[in-house]
Amino acid sequence: MSRDTELKERWDVLVEKLSAQFADGDTLELDAIIYLIGIQELGKPHAKYKKDEKINLMHIAICRLLEPYGYYEFEMFDEDGWPHYKIKEELPTLKAGEQSVLMKEALVNYFVEKQYID
Question: Which residues pair with 83 in a beta bridge?
């Protein structure tokens, strides 16, 4: 099975499983899944978040997702418990489709690591 085919199959399984668990069967978009990871990484799932905090949650998720690729490194938790990352390497310039593939691959790897999917 090609790498692209395997990624697509795993992505479809992940979206289906997360959508059933968090969206009453509506299909979650990529940004919504990234947001869920931000909440997971912060560890405060029941809090209410303001717009700027939601953006920060997505940033946390992106840093965490791209950490294994060498782009970010966890630095510390601040006094409010928010994780902070530092940039290790600038992201390469990617086309929109390439960005999407990278994020989907990172998301699948994250959920495999968390043993949420196989």
Answer: 77
Distance CA 8, CA 55 (A): 27
**pLDDT tens digit string along 30-48?**
999 999 999 999 999 999 9
Give the model confidence (pLDDT) of 56-78 as tens digits.
999 999 999 999 999 999 999 99
Q: Whole-angstrom Cα distance, residue 104 to residue 58?
A: 14
CA separation (Å) from 48 to 41, 51, 54, 86? Answer: 15, 10, 9, 26
Helical packing angle, 30-42 and 3-22, nearest 10°: 70
**73 three-class SS:** strand
Residues 116/96, Cβ–Cβ less than 8 Å: no
DSSP-H helix ranges across 23-50? 30-42
| Percent composition of the chain: helix, strand, coil (DSSP 3-state, to 5) | 60, 10, 30
pTM: 0.91
SS3 86: strand
